[in-house]
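Re: that chain you flagged

S.,

Sorry for the slow reply, it's been a week of failed gels. I finally had a moment to sit down with the sequence you sent. For the record, here it is as I used it:
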Amino acid sequence: MKRLTAILLSVAALIGCGGQGGGSSAESKEAKQMLQGIWVDSETGDVSFQVKGDTIFYSDMTSMPAYFKVVGDSLILGSGTSYGIVKQSPQLFWFSNQNGDLVKLERSTDPVDELEFEHDQPQVLTYTQQVKKDSVVTYNGERYHWYIAINPTKYKVVKRSYNDDGLEVENVYYDNIMHISVFHGSHQIFSSDFTKQMYKKMVPDGFLDDAILGAMDFNHIDAEGLHFSATLCIPDGASCYMVDTQIAYTGKQTMSLLEY
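Prediction finished late last night. Pasting the structure tokens below so you have them in one place:
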């Protein structure tokens, strides 16, 4: 009986070791080493990316470097996005992108391709160019002067998209703070900064985290006061929320959702 128990324990230990030593979750240092260097499209010769250590660098000025690892037959980015490796050698790297297309890359042998990576840190983008605007409007014979200032901040919003090879890339944008001032003659009836967090009651959290307060525009004036339209958008996307920011003649501020 003792001998049978010992045998069963030995078998269980072997099975346990086999489950841990299968290597399915272990990073392949050899595959990562073969990826070091500059890779270009096999058909067009266009530069795709450069690998240094555990980081992928892209040739364009706006895509952020991406951490990666190779596990089994998959290239895995730091975001968790995975790409199946179809073929890899010191000179070739083929993988399947998110659309299922086969991307064929080859190692660059042209020193000129190194110039693609001579720029400094990738550029952080701003979402608006106009920084201030103002006008005078009239209601019931009374004149009101409104003023909007758009102030880019250092608050960063990350947008994920796909490049021409179907690789996920990250672009970083600076969010904005909007300032509105309203004057009745020489009397200032309202002055305040607006950030995107002020609209969280009307915009879903998941959307707000990825959005930028991209614009603030005067809409109209009526018995309730002056109405300004705040636009919160995913950078370079079609998805936006528009919120009415109403400034009453007493200086009271209210908000309501206009459209999505």
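What I noticed first: The chain has a mean pLDDT of 85.

Talk soon,
D.
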